[in-house]
Design a protein that fits this description.
Elements (H helix, E strand, L loop, with lengths): L11 E4 L2 E4 L10 H5 L2 E3 L2 E4 L6 E3 L1 H14 L8 H14 L5 E9 L13 E8 L13 E5 L21 H12 L4 E3 L14 E6 L2 E4 L10 H12 L3 E4 L4 H5 L3 E6 L3 E10 L10 E2 L7 H14 L10 E3 L3
Parallel strand pairs: 8-9, 8-14, 11-12
Antiparallel strand pairs: 1-2, 1-7, 3-6, 4-5, 4-6, 5-16, 6-7, 10-11, 10-13, 13-14, 14-15
Length: 321
């Protein structure tokens, strides 16, 4: 049996059109994606509602998933409707009320040259119960380490895509941040401005104005990020999109992460490691506590994903339907 400690309630996995027991799936050790990160993926969440589990912004996630596959020159074996139905059925078969969903296209077994000319693209979909990405204390605020390494640049690769190999930088720097005693990393871009976290977008709040940056700053414009901008405007906040200087982050009244896995999490402390020759002590962001704006946005977001705000019903796909 496969240990499912870190995949609670996972029972079955969808692979190439069929369901298999979670412990059954095996891949050949010469699978192309295992060696070169030649994969495209999505992170999606479903939440409990009065109508049963609902997937948040499923069409947008599937659209981006297929775009990512196109960036890595895949010929996907399944289309949008097939992927959508497979995702919903995977949640049903695992009998999950709330879960994290991971669809993954990958170049499979065939050849091991850098160009996967004999390695077909395959699809696997998994779902399991997954709580707070940065830990149960994340709602009170997290500490971050500003990395000395710069984020992959928009001039180097299409950052609209979620590609497996690109995220090795996120893994390395996430581990480095934790070695430094912080909860998460933050990247600068090549221009020296704030980019994003390893898997999160960043917002700052100053004098009541909510600001985030755009793809030109070498970020993935996350689906949660886009949602938060709309929610904030509907709540009456002024929002703006533009570059965020390091000093702007340090002087913010509030700062927070957004992302499918992390949802909305305040950033309350930063250690500036961007110049390894000049290590700094941690400094508080704002008053060093979770802020009112972030708290209000998080509360509104959870109401929406749990189906308690009919205005945003358009963002929910009900599993039972």
């Amino acid at each position: 049996m496969i240990d499912t400690t870190n995949f609670p309630k996972a029972k079955v996995i969808w692979y190439q059109g069929k369901f298999h027991d979670w412990s059954e799936i095996t891949l050949h050790s010469m699978t192309h994606a295992l060696h070169y990160g030649t994969s495209a993926f999505e992170g999606i969440r479903a939440y409990p509602t009065a109508k049963g589990p609902a997937v948040f912004r499923l069409p947008e996630h599937v659209d981006r998933f297929l775009n990512s596959a196109a960036v890595i020159k895949m010929n996907p074996p399944y289309g949008q409707e097939e992927i959508t139905q497979a995702i919903l059925e995977t949640v049903r078969r695992n009998e999950l009320d709330s879960c994290y969903i991971r669809p993954l296209f990958f170049y499979s077994y065939g050849n091991l040259g850098l160009v996967p000319k004999a390695s077909p693209a395959e699809l696997v979909i998994a779902a399991w119960e997954w709580g707070a990405y940065l830990g149960e204390k994340a709602s009170a605020g997290v500490s971050v380490y500003l990395m000395p390494w710069r984020r992959v640049h928009i001039s180097q690769i299409d950052l609209r895509a979620k590609l497996g190999g690109v995220y090795v930088q996120s893994t390395i720097c996430g581990l480095m941040a934790r070695d430094k005693g912080c909860d998460e990393a933050v990247f600068l871009n090549l221009e020296g401005r704030i980019a994003e976290g390893p898997g999160e977008n960043i917002f700052v709040v100053k004098n009541g104005v909510i600001k985030t940056n755009s793809r030109s700053e070498s970020i993935l414009e996350g689906i949660t990020r886009t949602s938060v901008l709309e929610i904030a405007a509907d709540l009456g906040y002024k929002t703006t999109v533009g570059p965020i200087a390091k000093d702007e982050l340090l002087a913010a009244d509030e700062a927070f992460f957004t992302g499918t896995a992390v949802e909305i999490v305040p950033i309350i402390k930063l250690t500036d490691g961007s110049d390894p020759a000049d290590p700094k002590e941690p400094v508080a962001l704002g008053n060093g506590r979770a802020g009112e704006v972030c708290g209000r946005l998080r509360e509104a977001y959870l109401e929406i994903v749990q189906g308690r705000n009919s205005r945003y019903e358009k963002w929910l796909t009900y599993v039972s339907a």
